[in-house]
Amino acid sequence: MNGSWFGEFFGTLDEALYALWQFGDPSGIGQGWWGLVILAIWGIFLIGAPLALAHWAHGKHEWVSATMGVFGGLAIFWWAFGILPSAWIYYLDSNSEILSGTIIPASMGINGPVTIGSWTILPDGYRFAIADNLYQVIRDLVVVILHVVGFVATLWAAARIQKRYPKTLAEGEIKPESGGYK
To answer: Residue 32: phi, psi to the nearest 5?
Structure first.
């Protein structure tokens, strides 16, 4: 690890954050605020409102509750499994000249000379490349991690929802005896 990398990292960090700010508003309409506006619209109208309506309608209007719960859940899935990974890749690809080699390492390897005792394993000036495309590897690995975390969170949320909102019988309905011959 080269000590100058840390200086380059912190020296480039402000450019990377500015590029992230501008990434949310590529046309320059709102000088970066447009991405936050889209995020708020998505969060309030496509996720928050349907889930609030589903919670309000639970036990009173089951079809409304189920439909709004599915609508809010699908909006979350669309965001977690489509928009976030896509935005991550677009951001890194469009700003690779700022990020590659400074914020995210471009390659990984072992620089010579490497010796063990009197044996020279790597001569001076030689680089043993472990990953020449480390930037792309890290970019894609983050997408995989986003999907794994999203999948685990989906399973966890499904279990919590099933536990919190168990299926109930309609008013006046009697629970039938379960299975088997009489």
So the answer is: 100, -20
Task: Report whether the peptide linkage leading into residue 113 is cis, meaning its omega lies within 30 degrees of zero.
Answer: yes
* pTM (two decimals): 0.66
Amino acid, single-letter form, for residue 57: A
Q: Cβ–Cβ contacts within 10 Å for residue 116, how many?
A: 7
Instruction: Kindly list the domain boundaries of the chain, sorted by start residue.
Output: 4-164
Q: Which residue has the tokens 């700010």?
A: 21
**Burial, 140: exposed, middle or buried (Cβ in 10 Å; 0-12, 13-18, 19+)?**
middle
Interval 60-109: pLDDT, tens: 888 898 899 999 999 999 988 988 898 888 888 888 887 777 777 777 77
Backbone angles phi, psi at 115, to 5 degrees: -130, 150
d(CA 44, CA 28): 24
> Which SS3 state, helix, strand or coil, does residue 120 take?
strand
CA-based end-to-end distance of the chain = 75
